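Re: weekly structure request thread

Next one in the queue (185 aa):
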Amino acid sequence: MKTRLKSAFRDSRYRGSIAASITNFVLLLCVAVLLTACNATSVVLEPQNRQLNAGMARIFFIRHSSFLSGLGKPDIKVDDKLVGSLAVGSYFVVDRPPGPHRIAVHGALDSTGWQTSLDLLPGTSYYLELGPVVRRNIDGFRLESMDVTGQPLPGRPGLNSAFMFYVLDPSAGAAVVARLTARSS
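Done, posted below.
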């Protein structure tokens, strides 16, 4: 009889821990959905709907809307000037004169950021997609799960850098921008 009581007590504790785990998971999922909803739009500091001047170059900054893209809006800087914050499932553009420019992305708790240099040509569009910094083989999984398809852009990651840019060829970049535009309409 004593063993049966111990067994029943242990089973009820086990069922309680499963219920608590499920409740915690549901609460965590709700918080993630709320944070994602609050994070739905990019903050852009430059005009977006203008024609490209033939003497300028255009840079598209793209972030896919996959589940593992993460929360938060990393800050994007061009020549050490903040140009916007990139939300999940969005893009924005900046126009710059030809020549070399420093591009950087800063995530949460990342004061250094990931940095690179681009030599822009007049009348040309560049498509840069945000993806994870790949340091080890396991990071390749995150890359695929975030829908990143471009080639890694050489750069310098900071110690805590979570993001870097990948360059897309113009036709693939234009297709991604069209898909994101259609999705947001």
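The beta strands are 43-44, 57-63, 75-78, 81-85, 90-96, 99-106, 114-120, 125-132, 151-152, 163-168. The first strand starts at residue 43 and ends at 44.
Next request, please.
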